[in-house]
Amino acid sequence: MSEHLPSPYKAVIVRQDKQKELVVEQLKKTPIIQIVCEKVGISRATFYRWKQDDLVFADAIDRAIFMGVELINDMAESQLLAAIRDQNMTAIIFWLKHRHRSYGTRVSLDANLRVDKQLTDEEQETIRRALELAKLIPEQTDL
């Protein structure tokens, strides 16, 4: 397709392709679009226009952002483990609250309900049918 374009246009396409490659590589290291745009020297508007117009680029940046997020997660977890080794109590508590079932946040719910209303026949039938569909009670057969 670009072989039919005048030479100046070819140069623009080549430059854009290189910038797109740089964007993808930078997102793998730093998954923050604004920072990557500044490093590569393009505007956010250009980034999003390219993303909208070029499905291959859009797919590549989605994968690159995923990889970048995974990298940052690994780095953060590494720092958290280092803080735990240094006996940082906040890091220890954080780890236990989020990684150990016994230390997680618990919710307790107590209620005293008084229901004086009787269910209508239709409401009772709806509940019975729901319990049947959930296989919590056996299905009734009409004979």
Q: What does the model show?
A:
This protein is mainly α and 143 residues long. The chain has a domain at 2-75. It has 6 helices and no strands. The chain has helices at residues 7-29, 33-40, 44-53, 55-85, 89-99, 121-133. Helix 4 (55-85) crosses helix 5 (89-99). The longest helix is centred in the middle third of the chain and has 31 residues, at 55-85. It is flat and about 80 Å long. The mean pLDDT is 91.
Short synopsis of the structure:
The chain has a domain at 2-75. The mean pLDDT is 91. It has helices spanning 7-29, 33-40, 44-53, 55-85, 89-99, 121-133.
Structural class designation: mainly alpha
Cα gyration radius (Å): 29 Å
| Shape descriptor | flat
- The helix count comes to 6
One letter per element, helices H and strands E, the order comes to HHHHHH
Strand content: under 5%
Distance between the termini: 73 Å
What summary fits the major beta sheet? Answer: none
Helix content bin:
55-70%
**Total strand segments:** 0
Quaternary status: single chain
Uncertain segments are: none
**Overall mean pLDDT:** 91
Write out key terms for the chains shown.
0% strand; 143 residues
Write the layout of secondary structure elements.
Layout (H helix, E strand, L loop, with lengths): L6 H23 L3 H8 L3 H10 L1 H31 L3 H11 L21 H13 L10
